[in-house]
From TrEMBL:
Pathway connected to this protein: Nitrogen metabolism; (S)-allantoin degradation; allantoate from (S)-allantoin: step 1/1
Keyword set includes Transit peptide: no
PANTHER family hit by this protein: ALLANTOINASE (PTHR43668:SF2)
Domain Amidohydrolase-related as annotated: residue spans: 49-422
GO molecular function, one term: allantoinase activity
UniProt subunit comment: Homotetramer.
UniProt record similarity statement: Belongs to the metallo-dependent hydrolases superfamily. Allantoinase family.
Cofactors named for this entry: Zn(2+)
EC identifiers of the protein: 3.5.2.5
Keywords, alphabetical: Hydrolase, Metal-binding, Zinc
Leader sequence segment: none
Name the record gives this protein: allantoinase
Length: 436
C-alpha cells in the first residue's frame, strides 16, 4: 500500500492527539496539515495515527540460528504489530556481532530480507575491547554485555574487572553500554533443582541477582563516566537505587518489557516454558511497582526483548523450566498488550507511544524515527482503539508458533503499518547505522 496522506481526528503529535492530515512525500512526513485541508493524491481516513514503534531489543538470531527466527519472519511480525524499526541484538546468531566480521555476516544475512528498518547492536565479551572501536565506526548503536551466563557459549559474560575495562572504552568512544544485569555469583548460589514448578524457577532467579548486578553497573558508570542502560528490568526492588543514581547525575537509562507489565507469577502455569525468561516474570505487586516506575520516569522505555526459539528448544526437559530455553516471543503483540494493560490503569495511548516509539528512538539517536513531525520518516501506525485482538500464536508472523500471549484478548489493535510511507513488505526495509 502506498498513500499520499493519512487523515484522522486522532493523530499523535508531540505527545498529544490532534485532528490532522499527515502528508507523505518521498518516504518522509512532508507536513502535518489541518484535518480539513486539501491534499492531492490518495488520502485515507483512519481512526487513529501513531508514530511507528521503535523496538530496540529484538533477537533475530540470523545467521546461524535462523530456524529460531530470521530477518524475514521477524520483520514481518514487527510490521504486523506496528513496529517500524528494530535494533537487533548481537547474540544468538553465529557468529555473534562481537567483531567487524561478525557484523558483516549479520548485514549480509539481512540484505534484501527486511520488511522494516533494522539497526544492529555490537557485543562486549571477554577479550574483545579492541573490537569495540571498529564496530562503533561501522555504525552499531552501542554494545551489549552480560554479567551472568548468556545461555550460549559464543557470547560469554563479563567479570567485574572486564566490565570496567569495557566501560572505559565505551566512555572513550562516546558510546552506550546496554547490560543484562543479573549477578553471576548470586545466580550460582540460588537453588535451581530440576523442576516443572514456576515458583521454583522464580526462586532460582532472585531479585537480589538484579539489584547486585545493577549496583555493580552503577559503580562502573560512576568510576568511568560511561553511559549505561539497564536491559529488561524485572525486579522493582532496583527502582530506588536507580532513582538515587539518577539524582546523583549518573548517565543511566532503564527499560522494561511487555511481559513484565502484563503477566504475573501467580497466574503462570507450571511446565509452561513460553513464559520462561531471564530475568523472570515476578509477582503482581512487583508488576504494579514497575508500572509506577514508568509513570515516575525511573524506567524510560518499553521494548519487547523478543527472544524466540524452536519447539525443541522450548520443550527441552519436558517441562523442566531449568532446561527449557528462556525467552518470550512478543514482537508482534507487545504494543497492543501494553496499551490494553495501560488503559486498565488509566494510562493513555499517548504515554505508551512515548515509551515505545519516541523514547526508544531517542535512546539510540534515531532522530527521524518515533515521531510525527515534518521531516521525520513516514513510519506510521493506523490503530483502532475499539477493535478486539484475540492472539492465536499459530497466526503470528514470527517463525515458531510459541508465545506467552497465545489466547490473550485485548481491546485495540494495529490495522496498518507504513514504513517510510509504504506498507512493510520483505525487501522494503533498510539497514540503519548510527550517524553520530
Amino acid at each position: 500500500m502506498t498513500v499520499d496522506a493519512l487523515r484522522s481526528r486522532r493523530v499523535l503529535v508531540a505527545d498529544a492527539f490532534v485532528p490532522a492530515t499527515v502528508v507523505i512525500r518521498d518516504g518522509r512526513i512532508d507536513a502535518v496539515a489541518p484535518y480539513d485541508g486539501e491534499v492531492a493524491g490518495t488520502v485515507l481516513d483512519v481512526p487513529c495515527v501513531l508514530p511507528g514503534v521503535v523496538d530496540t531489543h529484538v533477537h533475530v538470531n540470523e545467521p546461524g540460528r535462523t530456524e529460531w527466527e530470521g530477518f524475514v519472519t521477524a520483520t514481518l511480525a514487527a510490521a504486523a504489530g506496528g513496529v517500524t524499526t528494530i535494533v537487533d541484538m548481537p547474540l544468538n546468531s553465529v557468529p555473534p556481532t562481537t567483531t567487524l566480521e561478525g557484523l558483516r555476516a549479520k548485514q549480509e544475512a539481512a540484505s534484501g530480507e527486511l520488511a522494516v528498518d533494522v539497526g544492529f547492536w555490537g557485543g562486549a565479551v571477554p577479550g574483545n575491547v579492541a573490537d569495540l572501536e571498529p564496530l562503533w565506526d561501522a555504525g552499531v548503536f552501542g554494545f551489549k554485555c552480560f554479567l551472568s551466563p548468556s545461555g550460549v557459549d559464543e557470547f560469554p559474560h563479563l567479570s567485574p574487572p572486564e566490565l570496567r575495562d569495557a566501560l572505559a572504552e565505551v566512555e572513550r568512544l562516546g558510546a552506550l553500554m546496554i547490560v543484562h544485569a543479573e549477578d553471576a555469583a548470586v545466580l550460582a548460589a540460588a537453588p535451581a533443582p530440576p523442576s516443572r514448578a514456576y515458583q521454583d524457577f522464580l526462586l532460582s532467579r532472585p531479585d537480589r541477582a538484579e539489584t547486585e548486578a545493577i549496583g555493580l553497573l552503577l559503580d562502573g558508570a560512576r568510576e568511568t563516566g560511561a553511559r549505561v542502560h539497564v536491559l529488561h528490568l524485572s525486579s522493582a526492588r532496583a527502582l530506588d537505587q536507580l532513582a538515587e543514581a539518577r539524582a546523583e547525575g549518573l548517565p543511566v537509562t532503564v527499560e522494561t518489557c511487555p511481559h513484565y507489565l502484563c503477566f504475573a507469577a501467580e497466574s503462570i502455569p507450571d511446565a509452561a516454558p513460553a513464559y520462561k525468561c531471564c530475568p523472570p516474570i515476578r509477582d503482581r505487586g512487583n508488576r504494579d511497582a514497575l508500572w509506577q516506575g514508568l509513570v515516575d520516569g525511573i524506567v524510560d522505555v518499553v521494548v519487547s526483548d523478543h527472544s524466540p526459539a524452536t519447539e525443541a528448544e522450548k520443550s527441552r526437559g519436558d517441562g523442566d523450566l531449568q532446561q527449557a530455553w528462556g525467552g518470550v516471543a512478543g514482537l508482534q503483540v507487545g504494543f497492543t498488550a501494553v496499551t490494553h494493560e495501560a488503559r486498565t490503569r488509566g494510562i493513555g495511548l499517548e504515554q505508551v507511544s512515548h515509551w515505545m516509539s519516541r523514547g526508544t528512538a531517542d535512546l539510540v539517536g534515531l532522530t527521524r524515527k518515533g515521531r510525527i513531525e515534518a521531516g521525520a520518516d513516514a513510519d506510521l501506525v493506523v490503530y483502532d482503539e475499539a477493535a478486539e485482538l484475540v492472539v492465536d500464536a499459530r497466526e503470528l508472523a514470527h517463525r515458531n508458533p510459541i508465545s506467552a500471549y497465545d489466547g490473550q484478548r485485548y481491546v485495540g489493535r494495529v490495522v496498518d503499518t507504513l514504513v517510510r510511507g509504504r506498507a512493510g513488505a520483505t525487501g522494503w526495509g533498510q539497514q540503519l547505522r548510527r550517524t553520530a
